[in-house]
Amino acid sequence: MDQGEQLQARLSAADGAAIVVSNVIGGGIFFTPILIAQLVPNPTAMLAAWLVGGVLAFLGAMAYAELAALRPQAGGEYVYLREAFGPLAAFLTGWTSFVAGFSGAIAAGALAFGRYLGRFIPAAGNSEPLLTLAFPILPLTISPQSLVALTLIFLISLIHYHGLGAGRFVQDGLTVLKVGFLVFLVLLGFAFGHGSAEHFAAEATISPRNWLLALIPVMFSYSGWNAAAYVAEEIREPTRGVPRALTLGTTTVIIIYLGLNLLYLFAMPIADIAQLKGGILDATGERLFTFALADLFGAFTLVSIAASLSAMILAGPRVYYAMARDGLFFSIASRVHPRRHVPAAAIWIQAGWSALLVLCGSLGELVNYTGFSVMLFAAIAVSAVFVLRFRLPHETRPFRTFGYPAAPALFVLGGSLIVLNELWNRPGPALAGILVIAAGLPLYWLMRRRSA
Question: What pTM did the predictor assign?
Answer without folding.
Answer: 0.90
